[in-house]
Design brief:
The protein is α+β, with helices and mostly antiparallel strands. It contains 4 helices and 6 strands. The protein has one domain (2-111): Dimeric alpha+beta barrel (Alpha-Beta Plaits, 2-Layer Sandwich). Pfam families: Cyclase_polyket.
């Protein structure tokens, strides 16, 4: 199981609009193209958290999908509601949170260096 957490800004009243964008998208082939098996959206004050779960890392498929019309539609529609957390945002990885601790009963604690973009062992 691979998880990706995307962090951005969203006005609290825009959550229904964002949910509709993803409801429409999730009925298309886009989740299959990217490899998404589950999506959960969270709002906290003016923050937006988008948890994407997949069997494998979605980054390679996500980058390939950026030129697909379904991806471009979602991206265009979300631009009305979502703005980057970091004004220096240039690409999707700039909005992805970096895991630095994980725990499961089977594996116990797994830690990583939050200063490195790819932590390898942290799930």
């Amino acid at each position: 199981m691979h998880r990706t957490l995307i962090v951005a800004r969203m006005r609290p009243g825009d959550a229904p609009g964002v949910a509709q964008v993803f409801a429409d998208s999730d009925m298309s082939d886009l989740p299959h193209i990217v490899g998404v098996t589950r999506r959960t959206l969270f709002a906290f004050h003016d923050l937006y958290f988008h948890l994407v779960e997949a069997d494998d890392d979605i980054a390679p498929n996500l980058y390939r999908a950026r030129s697909h019309p379904l991806y471009q539609d979602v991206n265009t529609r979300l631009a009305e509601f979502i703005s980057p957390f970091d004004p220096g945002w240039r690409e999707p990885k700039d909005a992805m949170a970096v895991p630095f601790y994980s725990w499961t009963p089977a594996d116990g604690p797994v830690t990583g260096d939050v200063t490195r973009p790819n932590l390898g062992g942290v799930r």
